[in-house]
Specification:
The protein has eight helices and four strands, in the order E-E-H-H-H-H-H-H-E-H-H-E. The chain is mainly alpha-helical. It has one domain. Helix 1 packs antiparallel against helix 2, helix 5 packs parallel to helix 7 and helix 7 packs antiparallel against helix 8.
Length: 254
């Protein structure tokens, strides 16, 4: 809605970048607190989060470019410019997941499932703040509406649902549910990340029916974001079912 945060000697700083930076910092703060309780060394905490942030930005941008090939093939110089937005959250989740598996495959001192559980607690808060960045930027908006939730963006000629705010609130709820009702109680290693994928997948499948900026696919008329959400949901559910039969998985307590 107000995309420009500051202009310094002609260089524009956008709210998108500012809010994303705040989201990353808050997520790191939460992860740091959780990791210190597990006695992770400070340099290990920073290294892990550095990998998550860098691979997240690369993965998010790469997927965004791949789903918008016609524009970026015509404007290749804009591919690395993320100041005004253009990060696909699905890519920003998947590449760090793969990167950490590769990075920690030889590190026997870190339980990968415990690490993923801590990240699953930290990430939703950053996502919530990131959706505020989308709101300030005026992208990822909803369908046209004249109801009580209607918001008018300068680039549009009609009011729409503020789906960015809906998702921001929903991500905060996911954080609270995972932290208060699962992470702080006895649970199996990897259970939190499984439920994160279930809850976030369900959120994207349901909420994106209200999106007004997406193009339906040929897969039952779903948006690409909903297909990814469905994949996340199924993967998370399959993982939770698997854990129920995995007796050797240690039980984590507060």
């Amino acid at each position: 809605m107000y995309p420009i945060f500051l202009v310094i000697h002609g260089f524009v700083i956008y709210w998108y970048g500012v809010m994303i930076a705040i989201g990353v910092y808050v997520s790191f703060f939460i992860f740091q607190k959780l990791a210190k309780k597990k006695s992770y060394p400070e340099n290990t905490i920073e290294k892990i989060f550095f990998i998550v942030v860098i691979s997240g930005v690369i993965g998010g941008r790469l997927l965004h470019v791949l789903v918008n090939p016609h524009y970026y093939f015509s404007h290749p110089i804009e591919i690395p410019d993320i100041r005004k937005g253009g990060l696909a959250i699905q890519g920003a989740l998947m590449l760090p997941f793969i990167s950490l598996i590769i990075f920690l495959r030889k590190n026997k001192t870190i339980n990968l499932l415990v690490l993923f559980d801590m990240l699953a607690i930290s990430v939703p808060v950053g996502q919530a703040i990131g959706r505020l960045a989308d709101f300030m930027n005026g992208n990822c908006y909803g369908l046209a509406t004249t109801g009580i939730f209607a918001v008018q963006f300068p680039e549009l000629t009609y009011p729409v649902y503020p789906t960015q705010l809906f998702e921001s609130f929903a991500n905060l709820m996911i954080f609270l549910v995972l932290y208060l009702f699962l992470y702080r109680r006895p649970h199996k290693n990897g259970e939190v990340i499984g439920w994160y994928f279930i809850l976030y997948g369900a959120l994207r499948v349901g909420l994106d029916f209200l999106r007004g900026d997406l193009v339906s696919s040929s897969f039952f008329g779903l948006y690409a974001t909903q297909i990814f959400g469905l994949i996340f949901f199924i993967a998370g559910a399959a993982w939770i079912i698997y854990l129920q039969f995995l007796k050797s998985n240690n039980l984590q307590r507060k």
